[in-house]
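Subject: Sanity check before I submit

Could someone independently write out the structure tokens for this chain? I want to compare against mine line by line before I put it in a report. The sequence has 364 residues.
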Amino acid sequence: MQESLFPTSAPVPFVTRVTLRNYRSIEQCDVVLRPLTVLVGRNGAGKSNFLDALRFLTEALQHSLQQAFNSRGGIAAVRRKSTGHPRNFAMRFELALPAGRSAIYRFAVAARRLGGFVVRREEAIIREGNGSPLASYRIVRTGKGDDLKTLFEASVSPAPPAQDDRLYLPIAAGFPAFRELFDGLAAMGFYSLNPEEMRRLQTPEHGELLARDGRNLPSVIARLQQEEPAALQRIEEYLATIVPGVRKVERITHGGYETLQFSQAVKGASHPWTFEALNMSDGTLRALGILVAAVQLFGRKRPVRLVGIEEAETALHPAAAGALVDALREASAHTQVVLTSHSPEILDRLLNRRGHPPRRPCFG
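---
Independent answer below. Compare away.
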């Protein structure tokens, strides 16, 4: 296997451990993540909700907690439903940062009885490679309703004030010590690829980050062709092992719109035939989207630190699953990859290479 296309000083895995409490269907889980992690388990076990918890954090940092709740139907749809009616949920992350540094980031959010929500607790701790503290802040809110008391401690100054309905990390990122933590968590990408959207003619855009459903794939392919042609070539090589005969993929335009065009070898033809995305199978489009998601650059300067992909094997022939795992394993040398899967072929490929079963702490 050739050397990684994206050498980086950032460690992989980025997120080394995730603890969740009362998030959607998950009462509690504690998961150690590797560079390439496959979450397996029966339907309804919480695999997709685990990925959604990470996506929730990214959305809350990119936009706001309110927007992250709104896109999921409100806090009542996010906190776990049970006979005990828990009013709060919590997340805790352990992370590896460049230059040997490490971080712990955690927060807990509670629903207000008369509507709305409050961040009950938030804490970030950055440590040097030798374990000594570099920077930290801690926010704890007690009380009910409008009678809230806030404890706010920070190692940096002057520390701007904190709002009770927003995470503080985007504000703390104004200090260099917290910037890498914020950048990494806010740049994670999560994908549930939709071939129907990928077939539609699209309006061209900058293509810096693949959309969750893959609709802007032509723009991302065009950017890779211009800025990272070696990466696009590697994608095409792996795509050819997953979909035999595919030779090239490129963006083409129709008026003010764009789509993808595939060049594919056809038996008996002296030259490859071309097919637009409209004529390609679900499996081909999903495979291409997964490969692009794993190697894309965010902001044209740094890799996406973690990519989450739901049911990567959907619409793929079982024989192609092994090639997909090989591609994702190579990608995981520079970008952490987390998959949900029901595919025995994917698990067999991992078992054959690793020699031991994947951990299944809360999805068994």
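---
OP: Matches mine. For the report I'm noting this point. The mean pLDDT is 88.
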